[in-house]
Amino acid sequence: MDILKQKFHTKSAALKAELKAIVKEHGDHKIDEVKIEQLIGGMRSVKSMIWDTSSLDPEEGIRFRGYNIPELREKLPKVPGGKEPLPEGLFWLMMVGELPTEDEVRWLSKEWERRGKVPQSVYDTLDSLPVSTHPMTQFSIGILSMQHESVFSESYEEGMSRDDYWDAMYEDSMNMIAKLPHIAAYIYRRTFKNGVTIASKENFDWGGNFAHILGFDNKDFYALMRLYLTIHADHEGGNASAHTMHLVGSTLSDVYYSFSASMNALAGPLHGLANQEVIKWIFEMVEELKTNRPTKDQIRAYIHKTLDEGKVVPGYGHAVLRQPDPRFLAQKKFAEDNIENDPIVNIVWDLFEIVPQVLGELGKVKNPWPNVDAHSGALLVHYGLTEYSFYTVLFGVSRALGVCAGLCWDRALGLALERPKSITTDFLKAFIAKN
Ligand code: CMX
Q1: Considering 235, 271, 375, 382, which one is annotated as catalytic?
Q2: CB pairs under 8 A, 24+ apart, for 333-340?
Q3: CB atoms near residue 409 (< 10 Å)
């Protein structure tokens, strides 16, 4: 058994026993109540699932196993001489709750390199789709087309014991994560670069190699990719892509079914697709104003126009956060450290000053601050990755780390089939009349 799997098994078996005892002793204690506004308003803040890999505080933002983003940037292993954390290290942390050593992270990079070969049938499936197919659709189909390789599904069919679910889920998760950059890069190159693909570098890290096979051989872009893949990985369990993974996986669907579904949730413009929408909206502004150095008054007027047309300002607002997203701030810091006077980055920074004022004046937006998607596109554009319909795929490759770690834990803890209770509007009206 490999070193990560061994540690995961020891830790998860202990927590499983603890949870069993908690249910036995405290199972009937209430932890939350549901208001009618939550029932109708997308279940905001209803405490209803276990998710240990990260947790989100409305004021402070995300912590991964207790570490915030500045702490991760400092403490996670890096490439020699590098400044940004390796996403492999974050996966290790989410899986076992401990910061990995340099050796452990190097082992994981090698392990994903070893498991990374994508079956030709996946590329053939992708090639059967029109190149105009949205990259997220291609990504979801590419993931699902690997399902026949699932160790979990095969073992289940052969009569696997419930005690072994975690083991098969670990194998599937490691295999799939290793392959995702290759599938994503293939989609990028077939869609935007005439199908000319680039061979992997040997003995390279997962994020650095992803940047390389996308076609961006620049050490700052490698660093950006490592940071990007780290900060997008997880945002506790209730967001749409994580919750979808958890829900679909709870039926004992394997990682390929679950993650393909998760990516279909990420593809919505109120969730991950917002990263494409932000840059599209900025490009449209630049085109309409015929300048990539608009004044603040011009930007303010453009925001008002967007709102007057009944649209949302992409990249702003959040269902849980009530402060600027630390993932936005981490990307801003990266730009401050590495990029000088880039017009699109400057627009993003001007928006950061103006949008919260405008949204605040509306009086209804609970969080007028930027989220992760408000900054990511400007950094990618700076390094030449301008094809914004691909951006959500990058988010998806990163999100796999958090939701796969989550799914391994779900199966290791023996969490149940998810099945909340729905009610009819007649039931609701009768309840109100009675109470
Ligand atoms: N622009 C305009 N109006 C906004 C807004 C924005 N960015 N954010 C919220 N509002 C509006 C809502 O549409 C809602 O209006 P109505 O009452 O007229 O329906 C009102 O403000 C209250 O909404 P809220 O409680 O503040 O926000 P929600 O929890 O309902 O929604 C979110 C959260 C993210 C869907 C919303 O802020 C939004 O649409 N933002 C733009 C899209 C975006 O950036 N999504 C990415 C989120 C991060 C991610 O998942 O990647």
Answers
A1: 271
A2: 334/84, 334/223, 334/224, 334/227, 334/379, 335/375, 335/378, 335/379, 335/382, 337/83, 338/220, 338/223, 338/224, 339/379, 339/382
A3: 24
Q: Tokens for 62?
A: 């995300």
Nearest residue by C-alpha to atom 44 in ligand 1:
315
On whether the CB atoms of residues 43 and 418 are closer than 8 A, the answer is no
Supply 300's token pair.
């303010």
Contact 62, 90 (CB under 8 A): no
Residue 370 contacts residue 354 (beta carbons within 8 Å): no
Q: Residue 323: its pLDDT value, please?
A: 98
Q: How far apart are CA 74 and CA 63, in angstroms?
A: 14
What 3-state class would DSSP assign to 370?
strand
* Maximum Cα interatomic distance, the chain, rounded to a whole number of Å: 69
In the chain, what are the domains?
Answer: 1-23+52-269+391-435 (1.10.580.10), 274-382 (1.10.230.10)
Q: What is the mean pLDDT of each run of 10 residues along the chain (435 residues)?
A: 97 98 97 97 96 98 98 97 97 98 98 98 98 98 98 98 98 98 98 98 97 97 98 98 98 98 98 98 98 97 98 97 98 97 98 98 97 98 98 98 98 97 98 96
CA distance 44 to 104: 38
DSSP state of 237: S
Taking the CA of residue 240 as reference, the ligand 1 atom at the shortest distance is 50
> Would you state the pLDDT for residue 257?
98
Say whether 306 sits in a helix, a strand or coil.
helix
Assess whether the C-beta atom of 40 lies below 6 angstroms from ligand 1. Answer: no
What pLDDT shows up at residue 269? 97
Half-sphere exposure of 365 (CA within 13 A, CB side): 19
Site to probe by mutation for ligand 1, drawn from 62, 276, 348, 366 as the one with most ligand atoms within 8 Å of Cβ, is 366
Please identify which of the residues 234, 254, 342, 373 carries the catalytic annotation: 373
306 lines ligand 1 (CB under 6 A): no
Query: How far is ligand 1, taken at its centre, from the CA of residue 366, in Å?
Result: 8
* Residues comprising the chain, all counted: 435
Q: Is 134 a residue of the active site?
A: no
